[in-house]
Amino acid sequence: MHSWRRAFAAEAGSERPDLALLCLLIGTEADPALDGTGMAAARRQLDLLARRLPPSPGGPRAWAAALAELLGGRFGFAGHPGDYQRLESALLHRVLRRRRGLPILLSVLWIEVARRAGAPVYGVALPGHFVVAFGSPDAWVGEGCGAYDSCGGQGGCEERVLADPFGGGRLLSCTDARLLVAGATGAPLEPAMLRPAQPHEIVLRVLNNIRAWAAARPERSDVALWAVELSLLLPAPADRLHYDRARLLVQRGDFRTGASELETYAEALGPSDATAAERVRRQARAARARLN
């Protein structure tokens, strides 16, 4: 295993994973020029941005406003629909350089800058659009957005505030959050969707975004492969990832290894779904046949 991957696995398995470091380590897979010096420079940039925030500006609304003024206003960090078409939009070191990125990477930027300044901040993994929250997560428990609506939504509630870094830091009412969820899934906003996203959940979602980018570009199966392999290094990876990796190996011409991993997956799948396991075995036999 490459040394950067060993570092990624070790950090992902630590008691308190460093979100910025994990995102920068993802960048080493896509950008061979990114080394320890480059990662250290990116972390210094986060430190410097945090130092530009006013000390203890106030409650959640004041923190959100300060971050929006600094990152969205003075430095112009925001997103554009075209950013979804660029791999660099999912790489933290490139987002710091370009000041553009996916909602989740801009949210990582906000979280890391705000955290360094002492803000009560966390990520919120709304379906289809990642945002950030300021305040106590407990304020959402049992009531979801109910009290948020009743106190004005647009930052009127001092206990918790939602902000959209992709939109430059626009404060979100609960109606805004409901519309984001409905637009992505057609389903209603549930209180559980407002819980804090943990670092390994955020990193997995970043990697899933990268895989989605690569899936639309069959010629970039190399990107899809390393994104799957990093996902497998996160705690409690889904069994399906082993199947995805095996299929990518076959796609890339490594028929022997791909077939072997398909067979291993089929054995694990057999007790719960014999029909699916046999289908995977047929795929393994087809891959081995291509060795002849």
From TrEMBL:
Family: Belongs to the UPF0162 family.
Residue ranges of every copy of the Protein SirB1 N-terminal domain listed in the record: 43-208
Name under which the protein is recorded: Regulator of sirC expression with transglutaminase-like and TPR domain
Matches recorded under PANTHER family: F-BOX ONLY PROTEIN 21 (PTHR31350:SF21), SI:DKEY-261L7.2 (PTHR31350)
Lineage: Bacteria, Bacillati, Actinomycetota, Actinomycetes, Kitasatosporales
Domain of life: Bacteria
One of the Pfam families matching this protein, by short name: Transglut_core2
